[in-house]
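Intended use. Records like the one below are meant for learning the mapping from a protein sequence to its folded structure. Do not use them to infer anything beyond what is encoded.
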Amino acid sequence: MKQLRIVALMAMIAVASSCQKELSLETGTAGTGGGGGGTGGGGGTTGTKLTKIVTKDLTDSLVELFTYDASNKLIAYSIKGSTLATPETDDRYTATRDAQGRITQLKEITSDDGGVTYDTIVTSVTYTGSTGTTLKYAIAITNSTDRDSLVYTYTQGKISKQTTYNYNGSTYDLSDESVYIYTSGNLTSVKSYDLTTGSTLIIERNYTYDSKTTPLNLGMDDAVLWLEYYSGANNMTKIDVVDHVLGLGNFALTYTHTYNSSNKPSASTMSAVVMGVPIPLAITSTYYYQ
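Structure written out for the chain above:
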């Protein structure tokens, strides 16, 4: 359930790499400034609260919607649409917060292109104390049967490790683990390990950022909301994905942003390199604010 947007974009790339003779890179409404983008131009409004992102390829689009409570904390997120590689999808996340604004429950509903729900995941969150935002663990139950336990480790106030356990009917078995590294307040590295047969590095993601303002800074709420690229203060300009097990090739995604008067992205264009080969793409995103 993590990184839905990144997974969807990678799905576009996978098909694009097999059809690259038919595709051409278009800049859309985004600027072409190097090293993360230019200023001015592009789409979106000049407000400060992110409400929608529309991502388009040559034929299809994904629409993300963001909803907030009276304290401007995110309480609902959805991603709906289709890509070059996937059918119409509808994923909705709804967060319940307590009087302190802490997330106590996240409900995820996934529907098919006919609107029929086929996955419901309810995650209940426990903190280390009755006050404060330090996470202790979370229990995620899928379709009322499958159960995972997520345990968090902190270093200098930030989550440095998340360990997942699968419930086998009587006890919890070690499943996997993600290790997080931060630089200047931004998440710069994630390494994921399979713990079922020891500790095997499966995949790692390395992030690069600009110096502009992110459209949505979730901080440690990201650990519950699964929007990894919104955990810091700045905007992701590159992600390097290394597959250490399957051998399907490494991805490098580069984002060129155009910024509004609030120094937040108004539009972005994505380019890709797969297994060292540039892949012609036409994927652009437009940001809307309130």
